[in-house]
Amino acid sequence: MEKSPLLIKGGHHEDERGRLIYNNNFNLFSFNIKRCYSIMPKGLRAWQGHQKEQKWFMALEGIILLLVIKPDNWENPSFDLKVNKYILKANDGDVLHVPEGFITGMKPITTGATLMVYSDFTLEESLKDDYRFDKERWHYNGN
User: Fold this and answer.
1) Is residue 140 in some structural domain?
2) Closest Cα to residue 100, out of 126, 122, 61, 76?
3) Could you tell me the pTM of the whole model?
4) How confident is the model at residue 143 (pLDDT cuts 50, 70, 90)?
5) Residue 138 lies in a domain
6) How far is Cα 60 from Cα 39, in angstroms, rounded to an integer?
7) How much of the chain, in percent, has pLDDT values that exceed 70?
8) Is the pLDDT of residue 56 over 60?
């Protein structure tokens, strides 16, 4: 069965004590998360992918455009592949799951936007499954 990116909806609650942002549907233990890190992109940061590694993305600050491509060939993918766009907002608590077999890119929409990334691979495992392509290879028609 073909896997696709999946947006895991979060939420927020606000009262006189402040604002709480949550995602009660993102269970890190069930996904076998092995590491996490944050990225603060200055501009378009693209394109990197993994045949076997899965990742989960969540905006911690601001708003970030996440771009996702399913390659048709890992050594020399076509130039006309569809670029799927997802907007992640820190105030929403949403998490985007990108399963194995995809290439991603990102671009901040707001200044200081920060993205938290979770992975089911150690750094050593990830480096053995790392595919990078020129950031000009695919155009995504917009911000």
Assistant:
1) no
2) 126
3) 0.91
4) very low
5) no
6) 10
7) 97
8) yes
